[in-house]
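pipeline: protein-struct stage 2 | run 1193 | Cytochrome P450
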Amino acid sequence: MLSLSIILLLICIGLITYYFLQLRQHYQYFSRLHIPTPPFHFFFGHLKTLWSSTSFPRQFETWTKEYGKIYGVYQGTVPTFVVSDPNFLQEVFVKQFAAFSGRTNFFASAKIQNVFTSSDATWRRHRHVINPTFSAAKLKLMSPLINGCITNVMEKLVDHVTSDSEFNIYTYYKRMTMDVICRCAFGLDTDVQSNPNNMYFKKVEELFGARIRSSIFFKLLQVVPQVRTTIVKIFDSINNVRAFINIRILPSVSKKQLHERPDMWLHNRLHSVIEQRQQTPTSRVDLLQLMLQVITTEQINDVVQDGSKTNYRLTREEIVSNIFIFMLAGYETTSTTLAFATYELARHPEVHRKLQAEIDQLPLATDDMSDDDMKKYPDYDIVAQMPYMDLFVSEVLRMYPIANQAIQRRASEDTIVQGIKIEKGTLVYADVYSIHYDQELWGPEDPKIFFPERHETKRHPMAYLPFGAGPRHCIGMRFALIEMKILLVRLLREYSILPGEHLHNKLNIHEQPALAPEAVWVKLVKRSV
Ligand code: HEM
């Protein structure tokens, strides 16, 4: 008996020793490559410092100043290159995309497979199905729908003009962008603008409000990524049971929306959106319709796909997951960019004047319009021809790269970039702040100054990354740009924006999970033209 205990003890000691030797080996990754790395802790790598910082991207920017344009950090044991050298990034995001087609597999879960979280062959299948939704022809067809939602927000804003008081315009943008994405992509009339208590909206807001990064669960997964898939599966199962109890056994509890995580709540309800659409055929060709055209009940194995794109299919669960990610990506990003755009307009009267001058030249009716005059609203063709608007929006996104944490790639095979050997599984993060504020890339005017005209000069193709880069850049980029520009045209044609007294002290920019202000307090003044 005693000898058995000793053997077990020796095995344990052996395993622990082996584990620590492996860790030591992991933590020599960058020193073997002669890549600089800030001081780190055994087991946590750089996570302790990152967790205690205001945001990962800001910490990366700080380290870049000390360690240069290419350095390494360990997220737990996962080696991560942090890069602000545009040529290196071009190699990773564009030229060698085949070896870097994924992002961190943090959300690896059977339940959450969509165009954002998937990689390699699975990602190609999703992206291929979804891409046509955002063609120029489709965006033209969507303009009236976007304009319809913008008409609603314009009506709501009137109250604030007549009361001549400052107000937080960001709240209105959020409701509008939620309505726009739901109406354009899924034919779902959320009408959040009239009903801010809409449950879809509240759950999506809850998701963004949740400080996921500071949760113990999230941190544990970061430190020990090896157990990620198992733990996520366990959590998914617990939530499935909860959902089953709420919906089937205790619907009264479900009515109060208790005990369901917002992501699970959304996933569960989105199934009924699909059912409704399947029962009510439509001539619409929106994102949901495109996905339903290729729905399958069969298991999909991307490894053995025959490579023929015409065979690309999506499962019902994948469709739900895509709707979910589009609600998140389509709502928060666009409203936040509009919030920052409004903030900068309130601070820069000369930029404001120039933009209004360009808007006033547009071939649009100026009087109140009836529905018949929809064609006179700014549409795709009109806003696509606005040079100063382009400069302005580009400058907003340069200064506020709101989704910069998504701009990363994971090596799916061993490869060499600019002479540096990168092993499979390694991450490459673009340090977007350092790039967007780099004097060499954006001078001669100080990059800290808001100066739209700097975009008239041709820059390095990787100097401007608000929508990412390469084949996996933001799929909703053109949609977001059209939506934002139409809103700005209609807003500035009717009103001038003035700073509210609380504009600066209530801005409170935070970065968890995406860069966003807390509020943008402005006044709207009716124009006399
Ligand atoms: C101003 C608004 C927006 C910004 C700044 C933005 C930014 C980004 C960024 C930085 C990425 C990662 C790109 C990369 O890794 O190279 C991304 C991906 C993505 N965005 Fe956007 N986005 C915006 C609006 C939208 C909208 C309106 C939608 C949906 C209609 C959308 C859907 C997506 C999706 C699905 C992906 C994942 C694409 C893939 O992995 O293939 N985004 N976005």
